[in-house]
Design goal:
The protein is 12% helix and 45% strand. The protein is mainly β and 351 residues long.
């Protein structure tokens, strides 16, 4: 046996069904209403009934109805002006009989919450804010705050203060803070705000190594990048000469030395010393030079030695001949002597 009245709630719609002992099935449905916003109330009948036989009421007022093409439904567009309970009714006249059904719904408006928080903050700071509701909001509505998609506390009566520690990684996409207003079974409403996170300039070892090696004749790049929001500008200089980081330069010995690198933004300046070492090949081509110098010298010494050898050999032969002249040898003519004197025996002069 079916009860005379059944209250059904499905997919956000309220429905009440009335089954009289005799007569058609009648049901009444309406979505979640909000004050001052029109919503539809539908009365469904088990069999086709002329629209003139269907009456829909809300808050003790009869509303114009619009029938469906098959005659099984009639819909009225209803507006309530105040929050609270709303009495809905549907009356169907079938012949001499009258079938009625009714239900009570709650017309509450969950307003957009108010989020009071700064637009910009610094990394490492504690961000504070407040989550609240408009002054005319229904008293049963509660609120809570969220940050990074995590609750900062439970639902409470507004206003609800909150705080969250700001981290450097929040600077990449911004820190999103949300205020949620809820009153069951109604749909909650949210107000979100993305906070810009500022980070002071910083030069760390990984992005700006303090020791860097170049090779003479190859391209050298001074690596020095800074972190921070807004993005800092980095400049490096040595002895009044600047060297732009990240740009390729033909490496030269003059580039060697210690550079002072500065990262600057509106939040301040960070500094780091970076030493550049330039490797170069200073070897001298000794072997070719030695060969080029020694070979002619060796040839000259060889020639001198040969000449001395020849000279000494001739001198030795001469003195040997003087000591032991051969039997048929003619006496050697001394320098300045005549041929006749040379021919006289025993060295006597010619007559």
């Amino acid at each position: 046996m079916v009860a005379p009245a059944l209250l059904a709630l499905a997919l956000g719609a309220l429905g009440v069904v009335a089954v009289p002992p005799e007569g058609p099935l009648v049901s009444l449905s309406a979505p979640e209403p909000k004050p001052k916003e029109p919503f539809n109330v539908t009365c469904s009948v088990g069999r086709a009934v002329p629209v003139t036989n269907i009456t829909i009421t809300a808050s003790n007022r009869t509303w114009p109805v619009t029938p469906s093409q098959d005659g099984h439904q009639a819909t009225a567009t209803v507006t309530v002006t105040k929050e609270g309970s709303v009495q809905l009714g549907c009356t169907v006249h079938v012949g001499s009989r009258k079938v009625q059904t009714s239900t009570t719904i709650q017309a509450y408006n969950v307003p957009m919450p108010l989020l009071d928080v700064t637009n910009t903050t610094m990394a490492g700071m504690e961000l504070e804010g407040n989550c609240s509701l408009p002054a005319d909001a229904f008293s049963d509505i509660q609120v809570k705050a969220q940050a990074r998609n995590r609750d900062l506390g439970d639902f409470q009566k507004p206003p609800v203060p909150f705080s969250v520690q700001v981290r450097e990684e929040d600077a990449e996409r911004g820190l999103e803070v949300t205020c949620v207003a809820e009153m069951k079974p109604f749909t909650p409403r949210k107000k979100s705000q993305r906070i810009r996170v500022l980070v002071k300039p910083r030069l760390d070892i990984e992005r700006c190594p303090p020791q860097q090696n170049w090779t003479e004749g190859q391209e050298g790049i001074l690596t020095c990048k800074a972190t921070g929001t807004p993005e800092p500008q980095v400049r490096c200089s040595k002895d009044g000469n600047s060297l732009e980081p990240g740009m390729a330069h033909p490496a030269d010995r003059a580039h060697a030395g210690t550079y002072l690198c500065r990262a600057t933004s509106e939040l301040g300046t960070a500094e780091r010393n970076v030493t550049v070492w330039v490797q170069y090949d200073d070897s001298f081509p000794l072997l070719p030079v030695l060969l080029g110098a020694l070979l002619p010298a060796a040839a000259l010494l060889g020639l001198i030695a040969f000449l001395l050898y020849r000279y000494n050999t001739k001198i030795g032969e001469y003195w040997l001949w003087k000591r032991q002249p051969p039997p048929d040898a003619q006496p050697l003519r001394s320098p300045g002597s005549s041929a006749a004197a040379a021919a006289a025996p025993n060295g006597s002069a010619a007559p």
